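quick one, two chains, predict together pls
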Amino acid sequence: MLLIQFLNALQFSMTLFLLAVGLTIIFGLMKIVNLAHGSLYMIGAYVGLSIWSYCDSFWLAFIFAPLVTALVGAFLYFVLFRHIQNADPMRQVLLTFGLIYIGLDSVRMIWGTMSHSISAPDVLSNSIILISEPYPSYRLFVIFVGFFVLICLYFILEKTIIGAKVRASVDDPETAKLLKINTDKILFYTFSLGCGLAGLAGITVAPILGVEPGMDMEVLVLTLIVVVVGGPGSLKGALIGALLIGFVDSFGKVYMPQLAQIIIYAVMALTLLFRPDGLYKR
Amino acid sequence: MNIKNIIIKLFFIILIGFYSSSISYSKDNIKIGTLLPYSGVYTVLGEEITNAMSLAFDEIDNTINGKSIEIIRGDTEVKPNIALQKSRKLISSDKVDILVGPVSSSVALALRDIVVQTKTPLIIPNAGANILTDAKCSKFITRISFSNYQINAPMGTWLANKGIKTAFLLAPNYAAGKEMMSAFKENFEAAGGTILGEEYTPFRKTKDFGPYLARVKDSGAEAVYVFYAGGEAINFIKQAHSFGLSNVMKVTGAGWTTSPLFLPAQKEAAVGFIGSLNYVPSINTEANKLFITSYKNKFGRIPSEFAVQGYDSGKVIIEALKSLSGDTSNKDDLAEAIRTVSIVGPRGPLTIDKNTNNVIQNIYIFEVIAGKNGPELKVLDTINAVQAPGEKCNL
């Protein structure tokens, strides 16, 4: 029982991490809170749904849905985000907020309003027995994807030249430019990567949580909470926030079901009260 | 183009607009206003109900005693305040004769007073709150869908009589979820069953049932009884399957959980679920087969129980209007005609309870079985002419 709950919490945390990390690196780099991040998550899930139903292959969907989402992100960057980077925060928020509605109505027009579902691939559709309790192997896969992305991002950011350039652009864009780092290019790639990660989250959890209009807003609120609690703009903050919110929510539902609706908001309020900059401060 | 030109053109456009709207406003038409969701989370239900109702009108070529029937749509957006606005428009400017709607009980409660005050007969094709045909009943409100009690109560008795003595309840935390669970609980306990635990999940906010499923499994109950709809139903069934819940207990519940609308997404994960509902597609009667064929021909998919409720609403309207020879001038007579109708629809014989204006209908206990083209609902038992209580209503 405890092990199962632990894995449930870890799986939820990893989903939150995939979402929060994209939002947080875009924020760290561009100082833009992209409220349309949830919409990109939804687009990833719907694109995955289409690929899955046409090609009957989950793995094709798993590979191409994030890529398509990253392309959508690249398009948005060129058309919109590039131009509002230095605008005042109110305009940025309103613009990305408008994108939420455009995204939702586009999805309704293209895919309709029904709830859909994607089947997990055959290899992962069964349960694994963990100490006499069956546990769905697909959920273990979600945990694996989360850790894989975490390790990849950590390695790229900390151990490669590109990562060093990204960090330089985040910390001090002026000096980075003087050092002939093409910050515009870095912004573009990072933004697309962040969007692609949202798409990856969408297709990864689709076999568990389904695909339906409105899924964007549900995760947007959670993702914002994770970013705020963890401390915006950093990989470690996103991880800490995702783990805290994931575990509090999952265990809260089991041991304090009456408080299930409010417990994560309570955690957020407490964090903001005692650590206004989030738990992890760079 | 100068400004004068534009003004002249605008003038003509407005003139044409007035002219054409005055054509469509003719007193000989019978106007049916719908107050259903055509946008928002329940869009599919609004469409199913309207589609099926128009199918019933098509069967009589949309005419009764020489008067043509016209459907005027009002989109409630599943918001009580919007629904109220739309109802005012339909009642006072469109001058509809009968209203059909809504899907959601909270919207129905918001509409209750205006239809009673204006004496506009309202036919409810879905909303199941018990109170609508109990303390808040009115002779102008006729429910031909179900009350939450009506669907869930028979299952409590049935399961206990089948030898299942312990159950765990799981439902979304809102009025309908609680009404359904308490109807089941009351009858299950009366028949000798024990409820080992109950859990109410945040409504429309629960996507991951993992934490709850582990708890349900741990309870050691012989059955879990649930109610979910839409995306929550799909997620619950799939996740319960992947956690192997059906290996340790019977998975049962209100039949919407495995509605034909959701089965294509739930697939084999739904197999073994036992549910109760007022309609299943496999009912073996001529009326039902005919309905399924014509619905499929026109709309390209198998009708759901929501479509059936819309179709029966149409049928009830037709029968009531026929008995009045198409005369809708006296609202009291119209309301009386509606509540004295009895028809045989796709789901079986329907009559209206004289005391509460709630439909009296058969409830089907079914099991989801694996069929050739995906899962099917197999009827295990039929509980005939189930009535809903309504002590606080005196009609």
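Residues 20-26 of chain B have pLDDT under 50 and may be disordered.
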